[in-house]
Amino acid sequence: MPNIFDISSIFFTVWGYPMSYLEFFGVVTGGVAVWLSTQASVWSWPVGAISVVLFFFLFYQIQLYPDMFLQVFFLVTNIQGWWRWTHPKPDEAIREGTAHVGELKISRTPTRQLVIWSSAGLLATGLLGTFANNLHTLFPVLFSQPSAFPYIDSFTTTMSVVATFLMIQKRVECWYVWLVVDIVLTYIYFVKDVKLVAAEYLIFCFVALQGAWLWTREYQAYRQLDDVPH
Predict the structure, then answer these.
(1) Crossing angle of helices 150-168/111-133, nearest 10°?
(2) HSE value, Cβ hemisphere, 13 Å, CA-based, for 208
(3) Tens-place pLDDT, residues 55-75
(4) Separation CA 39–CA 21 (nearest Å)
(5) 3-state secondary structure string, 123-153?
(6) SS3 category, 11
(7) Between 65-86 and 44-61, two packed helices, what is the crossing angle to 10 degrees?
(8) What is the pTM of this model?
(9) H or E element: which one contains 156?
(10) Regarding beta strands 17-20 and 10-14, do their DSSP bridges make them parallel or antiparallel, or are they unpaired?
């Protein structure tokens, strides 16, 4: 029985690249979860929860510690997001016009709120980056190797937090934040030689654009319905 949580446990080899069970199934479940998100499907959250558990073990083994910690956050927010989308307040619920009647409406983020979130993310990047840069000296038993790309990795971690909170509230702008994060992560994962994960995040860049377009279209559909006399 293979240990799917060990990156050295190989599922198959393609073009000379050894594919671990951990990387393969983490990528597949993550890809399905993101696609479901573009469709505004609540099932994106439980499928995403499976993916983050797998990626937690993957990132620990390739020394991307901020990304590893991020998976714990994602696990909690996947549960929170599932609840938020399926239990909106009465004035936030979709009443008609889409396949998601009764669920949380898509909305836009006020500019002031977006600026505050972005600024907080950048400040947190500096703090987390400094911490990640010293993890191997602070906790040498747990982290035997220094963190790879501590500040860049911390930037994607903190901005992923911002994007996730926006997604929980079903804000269109979450997709633009995800686009920036996905571009940077594509580079990081390629350099760290987890090629399938890098390829997935390259695809996620295009998925983020699709998500922004689909969510904007649905948001505009609500407004058109509101303008129709009842």
Answers:
(1) 140
(2) 21
(3) 999 988 888 787 888 889 889
(4) 27
(5) HHHHHHHHHHHCHHHHCCCCCCCCCCCHHHH
(6) strand
(7) 170
(8) 0.79
(9) helix 150-168
(10) antiparallel
